[in-house]
Amino acid sequence: MFVKRGNCMLNKVLSKFYKIPYLVPYWDTNETGILKNCFFENSLVEGSHSEKLVKMLNNKTNLYSYPTNLGRSAIQLALGQIPKDGRKEVLISSFNCSGVVQPIVQAGYIPVFIDVGIDFNISIDGIRNNYTSNTIAVIVPGLFGKSPHWKEIKTFCKEKNIFVIDDAAQYLGLDGAGTNGDFGIFSFALGKPVESIYGGVLLSKKKYSFELKNKTYANVLSDSMAALFRGKYRKYTLPYFAIKDGLKRKLLKNSFSFDVFNIPNVSSGITIEQFKKLDKMVKLRQRNAKILLDGLSNIDELTLPEFSKDHAFLKFVVSLKKAKQSKAPNRSTDLIKFVNALASKGIETEWVYLPLHLREPYTNYRTTDLTVTNNIWKCSVSLPNRPGLSEENMIDIATHIKKSVIK
Ligand SMILES: Cc1ncc(COP(=O)(O)O)c(C=O)c1O
Predict the structure, then answer these.
(1) What is the mean pLDDT of residues 339-359?
(2) Which domains does the chain carry?
(3) Three-state SS letters, the chain
(4) What is the mean pLDDT of the segment spanning 203-213?
(5) What's the whole-number mean pLDDT along residues 243-251?
(6) Which atom, in ligand 1's list, is nearest to the CA of 200?
(7) How far, in Å, is the centroid of ligand 1 from the Cα of 78?
(8) Which atom in ligand 1 lies closest to the alpha carbon of residue 74?
(9) What does pTM read for this prediction?
């Protein structure tokens, strides 16, 4: 009785932090069961799941698949297969994850930062206007779950003999994701359409033989525990991880370098389970997005994403119109107030990317006209719409925004 009451108190105190945390993987006992079995059967690193994953991905994509530890490792492997012909530059959007730029550098190429369109996807005009005889490849992400402008991109890149990497890390779940370029990649990190401990895959029409090293048992074990506690039990562990990450940022220099490894067996097992639910998860995200769109549509102060079947709504990004005019070099104070007001109601949001051309160590690479990028990151934020949130949660978020955030 005493223990029960104590637990209940602890629950209350801890869960006060966020009522609606932003990032919680859509895992049930199937995923946690894989974790448990791999642990007790001593197959966290090696086992039969990885072979099954390759078969499943080959079947689904009709391509050869090469699983890795990370999506960025898959990008590095892809770039490494492009025949060297003296061209050095790889085009990418600056409004992007750091996991896309580092593999370019590590593969020995030079990133060139180009702009995005208003849907946050890489702009075809940006590609056209900034292509030079030194351009060898372009990496095309379907940012936030929105399918890229494939028709125009494919036609242009074919005409100019530019290699295309279809970066489906964020729009996996939509038809053809990962199959549109010379290479495709997925990421299976937390926060992606398929969430495992981590993982990635390179997709290609060609057969290669890569000899990738395994991560150590100790690494995989601690990463598995971190994914479980940071992700699945985020509601309770967020204060601890917030302090830990804050201290890490203060004390250690930020390093984006990484090593290419094999995918651990436990990640493969969880990835397979997640693929079984992928269609359902996309539908739930789209349903949640629709509820937000309905609830927020008459709020003039917000720019909302457009609903379409080409949008898997991995992230639901809104922009504050009044913050758009801000000339400040940082995130607008109106946006910070908006985020804090939601946090005070227990709703966690996620900042959008600080553009890559503004981040060390990437500030010295060639940039082009980045008007949209330079504007949107200061006035935009992602609202929670992950598949585990209920219709009531979504109505709650919209109501709080309407009632107390936008006055
Ligand atoms: C669009 C995009 N591409 C690639 C990556 C790299 O994936 P990973 O984190 O698995 O290396 C990420 C994110 O992390 C991403 O958002």
Answers:
(1) 94
(2) 28-276 (3.40.640.10), 278-405 (3.90.1150.10)
(3) CHHHHHHHHHHHHHHCCCCECCCCCCCCHHHHHHHHHHHHCCCCCCCCHHHHHHHHHHHHHCCEEEEECCHHHHHHHHHHCCCCCCCCEEEEECCCCHHHHHHHHHCCCEEEEECECCCCCECHHHHHHHCCCCEEEEEEECHHHECCCHHHHHHHHHHHCCEEEEECCCCECECCCCCCCCEEEEECCCCCCCCCCCCEEEEECCCCCCCCCCCCHHHHHHHHHHHHHHHHCHHHHHHHHHHHHHHHHHHCCCCCCCCCCCCCHHHHHHHHHHHHCHHHHHHHHHHHHHHHHHHHCCCCCEECCCCCCCECCCCEEEEEHHHHCCCCCCCCHHHHHHHHHHHHCCECCEECCCCHHHCCCCCCCCECCCHHHHHHHHHEEEECCCCCCCHHHHHHHHHHHHHHHCC
(4) 96
(5) 76
(6) 10
(7) 14
(8) 11
(9) 0.93
